[in-house]
Amino acid sequence: xxxxxxxxxxxxxxxxxxxxxxxxxxxxxxxxxxxxxxxxxxxxxxxxxxxxxxxxxxxxxxxxxxxxxxxxxxxxxxxxxxxxxxxxxxxxxxxxxxxxxxxxxxxxxxxxxxxxxxxxxxxxxxxxxxxxxxxxxxxxxxxxxxxxxxxxxxxxxxxxxxxxxxxxxxxxxxxxxxxxxxxxxxxxxxxxxxxxxxxxxxxxxxxxxxxxxxxxxxxxxxxxxxxxxxxxxxxxxxxxxxxxxxxxxxxxxxxxxxxxxxxxxxxxxxxxxxxxxxxxxxxxxxxxxxxxxxxxxxxxxxxxxxxxxxxxxxxxxxxxxxxxxxxxxxxxxxxxxxxxxxxxxxxxxxxxxxxxxxxxxxxxxxxxxxxxxxxxxxxxxxxxxxxxxxxxxxxxxxxxxxxxxxxxxxxxxxxxxxxxxxxxxxxxxxxxxxxxxxxxxxxxxxxxxxxxxxxxxxxxxxxxxxxxxxxxxxxxxxxxxxxxxxxxxxxxxxxxxxxxxxxxxxxxxxxxxxxxxxxxxxxxxxxxxxxxxxxxxxxxxxxxxxxxxxxxxxxxxxxxxxxxxxxxxxxxxxxxxxxxxxxxxxxxxxxxxxxxxxxxxxxxxxxxxxxxxxxxxxxxxxxxxxxxxxxxxxxxxxxxxxx
Length: 643
Hints:
It is a single chain. Among the domains are: 58-225, Single-stranded right-handed beta-helix, Pectin lyase-like (Pectate Lyase C-like); 371-480, no CATH class; 495-643, no CATH class. It starts with 27 loop residues before the first helix and ends in an 11-residue tail after the last strand. The longest helix has 8 residues, at 76-83. The relative contact order is 0.08. The chain is 3% helix and 47% strand. The protein contains three helices and 48 strands. The chain has a 22-stranded mixed β-sheet that branches. Strands 3, 4, 5, 6, 8, 9, 11, 13, 15, 17, 19, 21, 23 and 25 form a 14-stranded mixed β-sheet that branches. It has a nine-stranded parallel β-sheet with strand order 7-10-12-14-16-18-20-22-24. The chain is mostly beta strands.
């Protein structure tokens, strides 16, 4: 007998917040002139923000494409027709590859896997709590934990070519009676990420296989940030030894077997909050590297350890608080070595490695970026409003006019913009946002963006793809705080704060700056050092690199921390062997791994005129892994604003 699946919503669509009234951009001037605005302002934290996208942004509105979001209609076909379109499958007859998708608030019922059909997709919900993609209760095919099945999957083609998959601001609910359900099967490469997403099982027993499963061959690098996983046997699982992933601001609760599992990958984790009786974190495998910092693992069962580091895995842990567990860490690599109290101050599987006498450690205080109030979206200014100024194929005058219009938020609709002059961010403009726009600079001897003096911190998130010709993408010519994603960097005015996200670029030169970077991917044959920290503070959570040049040089009393590095030197084109890291009279800490062709030497440190080095054969762990290197040279005065 055929069973008719239950299409009734688990949560009423009335539980979702109402969508703000949308107003076309052509009417924005009227609102600025005197009409009362009713839409709530958009707020950004880092590189994600909630709210509607402008009508001309170039995104496909999924409700316009047939999805109802009413909590009663089966929206499976509408979702699959759009998200499943692309080069890998069949382009949508109306929307082509459908790479940019906006989901308005609503409850969207589905009964089968929604499989993305292309790389470089961006799926953006209006709000995390307002967009609910809900698997129907007792869905066919999701009943067998031995055969896990995804609700939503970004896993397309060959993993290392599955570039730039982005997912923002939504909830995935696997419903009730679906013990084989995986909330999200995720893969991205080089960059991309999951931001501000909740994955939950609304089953009374929290049934489900895995919340977030990252196991397509060779995932990463990429970012998972501001994620909540509620329920499931396993909260998060990541596999494979190539490449690496960053996890920050992660909440895990109500898992039945384990919270977070790393199997052989290189992971960097900050601010993991686990509320679980089961073991919160397991690190497994002969190539596994985990850097875990500033995390709270509570409500544990006294029969379990909070963290299990299995045989051959490499772990660095710092500032970890636990509660209820038998012990904070069971390290099967070094039995008996972990502390027995409820807090881990600083620990590594093989202990600190150093080249000189002092092994005293240090830690750069970590800061989150400032929160941005983007204002009423109807008052944002599009660069296309000034398209008449884009003469001779040069968009620079139009873009500059938009910035100088007095708008707080300027945006680029989807498209390619040829730019033949530097763009100066100044005055009242604080936010420059690209909706999958490509800034194609054609100014080989000049910077692309210049951050000049103006009103408050700056958020810059406009991509510049292959073929851009510019001296440097971003020239920071002001002490203004800068938050950005994408592009090479230098500063001409020292003393500022910089927050970098999810960036593939070289070079990056920081002169006496305070820098916090999440997921960097520099690759170069052409620069002596891809990243240079001269006399400042550079904190990196997740670093992956290719090619054959020095990855980071720390000079003139600088301080650098690299937590979770994956050095994939896949080619050697230069005749000289560049060291991976150079340290000159400075402080340096690193947790990382080599793959393919190892750097030789690994670290070259000069202190007070003496130079020493670590070779690949002197690495403390197998598979060319370093779990805690520390260099303590270069005493200096703290930079302004340090804590």
